[in-house]
Amino acid sequence: DLRASLEISFEEAVFGTEKDITINKSVPCDACEGTGSKSKETKRCSVCGGTGQVQVKQNTPFGQFMNVKTCDKCGGTGKAVDDPCQVCRGKGFVRKAVKVHVKIPAGIDNGQAISISGMGEPGSKGGAPGNLLVSVRIRPHKILQRDGYDIHVEKTISVAQAALGDTIKIETIDGLVELNIPEGTQSGVSLRMRGKGVPKLQSSGRGDQYVHLTVEIPKHLTEKQKELLREFDAAMGGTLQKTEGETQERKSFFGKKK
Description:
The protein is an alpha+beta fold. The protein folds into three domains: about 1-40 and about 80-140, Urease metallochaperone UreE, N-terminal domain (HSP40/DNAj peptide-binding domain), CATH 2.60.260; about 145-215, Urease metallochaperone UreE, N-terminal domain (HSP40/DNAj peptide-binding domain); about 225-250, no CATH class. Helices cover about 15% and strands about 40% of the residues. It contains four helices and 15 strands. The chain has helices at about 10-15, 160-165, 225-235, 245-255, and strands at about 1-10, 15-30, 45, 55-60, 65-70, 80, 95-105, 115, 130-140, 145, 150-160, 165-170, 175-180, 190-195, 210-215. It has a four-stranded mixed β-sheet with strand order 10-11-15-14. Strand 10 (about 145) and strand 11 form a beta hairpin. The N and C termini lie far apart (about 90 Å).
């Protein structure tokens, strides 16, 4: 077999594509038509009689045995060449750059290989050629991450969106899709978008897409925003350990001691 590699995009792996690649492989010599002979004629090997194998006697402490090995004269082809081709030096094959059309199925994953029958190296002793194994490398997406047939994406939402709920747009392999954020969504929650994942290889159906939410806490607030948060905290039962009034009293106390 012959091996090659091919790099494709995230989207091409998801939906499938077709590519042309160039490989170097052994092909029949045009000058001698693959015979290895300058005259394009061969004859039966005089050593093995055309079988490509010879029997060798081997003496052991247990007696004499007959072993079979490849004929050194013809290299196992069973044919002899009196006038070797000058182009291929009697081999019958030459190395050549060959263009191969590769069909990549939808849903292929990183590291998987595509087998193309008959596009490998020529078989020994005139046998059938091997296969070409094309290993696929997938370039990562700038936002989406793949795990098998599922896709994952991270999304940041505001405190208001998390508390009140909202409808946001999420990037998927099908484009932007609306996603409903339920009221009271907590940071770290993952929402599932069914059927928005990768098509299953040689099967029906698709995986899912998971949206991992992070609630962004504002770092810089205006006094008005702080006041609104204090009012909100008071309405929720008062969880703040330090209120605005206490802060002002402490400032006044330390001011009097000076």
